[in-house]
Amino acid sequence: MSAPSRDMAAGAILAKAPVAGLVKTRLVPPLTPDEAASVARACLLDTLRRGPAAVGAAWTLFLDGEADEALRQRAEADVVRILPQGDGDLGMRLEGAFARLRAEGAGRIVAIGADSPTLDPARLAEAFDALRAHDMVIGPAEDGGYYLIGLSVDAGDLFRETPWGTGEVARVAVARAKARGRSIATLPPWYDIDDEATLRRAAREAASAGCRALVAALAPLRETIG
Question: How confident is the model at residue 54 (pLDDT cuts 50, 70, 90)?
Fold first, then answer.
């Protein structure tokens, strides 16, 4: 194990393997399970391609499920290693990811999911920069969650007993960090692709955002999503 250093930055992507029936279930209907899985795969592929290239950090994909050959090739091309997620709820998995990277010596760690592929990668660079002067950085999602969270200190109990899946997730994280005297930087809000409205928004923005995989996945779904 290495002592954490703020000079060492690490990124974590937490995502599910894009298996039909297990991902993007809130998009079914109007999509079929296979179509929803195709969208999930595209989101993950674009996140892998666009995110790690934006900052000079060591990236790890913490994957829930098995990586298929296409996913492994994409990760290899982007110099992203793949590790399994731990057990438990999302909070426990986040805590485990941060602990793993911190034990490897990373002093600035930023975690994202794969639900915001249209996010400007410059936000990731901003997050890592913010951690040079702050204990925590958060990118609030428009639905009350967060699309990004980063730490330059131990996570402690930050992710425990969080009301996942509600509009209180970001608020609880900020309140808990403030109660422990943590300094916090906040990024502009963005959105996750998790329902029909956000899928339609992503369809409008994918091309200009450079999300090539998402553009290809949505092309045959234009009539379905409107």
Answer: confident
Tell me the fold of 5-217: Spore Coat Polysaccharide Biosynthesis Protein SpsA; Chain A (3.90.550)
Say which residue the tokens 């992507």 belong to. Answer: 13
The neighbour count for residue 70, using CB atoms within 10 Å, is: 11
Instruction: State how beta strands 136-140 and 146-151 pair.
Output: antiparallel
Token pair for residue 121?
A: 């990668």
Contact call for residues 62 and 84 (beta carbons, < 8 A):
yes
All residues at 6 or more sequence positions from 69 whose CB lies less than 8 Å from its CB, including other chains:
none
Residue 2 has pLDDT above 70, yes or no: no
Q: Rounded to an integer, what is the distance from CA 177 to the centroid of its chain?
A: 20
CB 167 within 8 A of CB 191: no
- Structural domain spans, the chain: 5-217
Does pTM surpass 0.90?
yes
What pLDDT was estimated at residue 117?
Answer: 97
The two three-digit tokens of residue 138, written as one number: 């958060």
In angstroms, rounded to a whole number, what is the distance separating the alpha carbons of residues 166 and 179? 21
